[in-house]
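I'd like us to work through together how a protein chain folds, taking it slowly. To get us started, please write out a protein record for me. Go ahead whenever you are ready, and we will take it from there:
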Amino acid sequence: METLALYVPRLLEKKENFAPGHRACSGCGEALAVRMVMKALGKNVIVVMATGCMEIISTQLPYTSWEVPWIHTLFENTAAVASGVVAGREALTRKGKASSRTKVVAMAGDGATADIGVQALSGALERGHDFTYICFDNEAYMNTGIQRSSATPFGAATTTQPVGKISMGQNTWKKDMPAIAVAHNIPYVATASPSYPFDLMNKVKKARDIEGPAYLHILSVCPTGWRTPSDLSVRIGRLAVETGVFPLYEVENGKYTLNIDPPQLRSVEDYLKLQGRFKHLTPEMIKEIQEKVEAKYAELVEKVLFYDGF
């Protein structure tokens, strides 16, 4: 069952701070996630966003979908720019020209987070800047042609890890960015999915309201890159959680909480079979993925039980 929601429908922000009319693909899970994130953040926020799908579809001159201050950055320096915005806000606050209640939020895809921007992100988390970093993870460089990233799951077919006589798709396992963020000993880390909207918005609100750096990792179903029907994005996002492929949890000052814990995990095949990027997988590869998912999920449960024991 979902955790008790801090948000209820009648209390949700009606104003769309991520306005409709953008150019996202039909069924885009990332656009849905951004819309929910902006509802939870409210108006008093400055958004710093890397090049990527959401930047491209929402800011083509002379139009914009952003109803809040918004800054475009490069792939590699999103966290660094956000750090600078935080420093500027603090300096202006001391002069009485700004408010410390104005929140700074960095947004980037998996490539700009786990690959190109990981150095800047690590430095910003280590320095303890007061901002929220949100990774919208669609598991490849979808904006530039479905190239693999270090967040691409094992076995997935991409344009740079295609399926053929000498390749079986992605041959490495997905980088665990939430665990990397946790290793920096920051106050708050969480995973989320737009398929669980209240869980996602509650976590955004928590991240926004804490002092210090916070990291959110949001799974974003991409019908184009995942080769899925556009009307199944929400269902596929739920299957990722129900199978244990993408568990929903949060780490508050080192304490792990599992937010959605199915009585029994579904077979990963239920999740994989709906996606064209996995259609080439053999029974042996599916079995290997199943074993990996179960092992990782067991590790997570063990961490939750460990902290519950105190």
The first strand starts at residue 45 and ends at 50. The CA atoms of residues 9 and 236 lie 23 Å apart. The beta strands are 45-50, 70-73, 103-109, 132-137, 188-192, 214-219, 249-252, 255-258.
